[in-house]
Amino acid sequence: MSRLLLGRRLPRELYELETPYLARLLLGKLLVHEAPGGRTAGRIVETEAYLSHRDPASHSARGETPRNAAMFGPPGHTYVYVSYGVHLCFNVVTAARGIGEAILVRALEPIDGLDLMRERRGVKSDVDLCSGPGKLTQAMGLTLALNGVDLVEGPLGIWEIEGLPVDDSEAVTGIVTSQRVGISQAADLPLRFYLQGNPHVSRR
DNA sequence: TGCCTGATTGCCT
DNA sequence: GGCAATCAGGCAA
User: Fold this and answer.
1) This model's pTM is above 0.70
2) Interatomic separation, CA of residue A139 and C1' of nucleotide B2, rounded (Å)
3) Arithmetic mean of pLDDT, A92-104
């Protein structure tokens, strides 16, 4: 996918933008992982914002612990954690160091390295490769070893690409704002964002 | 120390 | 639609 050369990696300053605003801005951007086994990349189609102490659903709401320490780290780094003891969730740390805000990437549209994704996931349909937070970490080969790493440089990054090919199975008509998925605290806050009509969004 | 819950997924009925 | 898998953190005792 030589188109990558036409894009630019998102700069540090971008990750200091207001978290809900940035969650919308990340839609359509490309998450790229250069792993030893090969490159995988996916277009971000669904995100959720998690705020600091003012958001009881956020891992950071009760202060810093060894588990959520990366969430309090510098912006533009990752926060990866184990969910339900089984799956991993991938977050982008935002706001200044010590604040504790992040964006959960909930779904990707597979763009590059599809064969490697299929191998890792072992599913029949390509729609099942990255259509959920636990699915995409598996498909992209993300591990706990990538918790706290820098997205501005290194093997894992987010790119803005000119003319990125888009899934044409359904027309994308805009950005939808809704309630976050799978939480009970502050469930009414409109902090989930996804591309309307995109078949890779986790819940339609 | 022990119990309960959860930013989920996939298999079973 | 129901439910098990599987484990770390939070909180009660």
Assistant:
1) yes
2) 36
3) 96
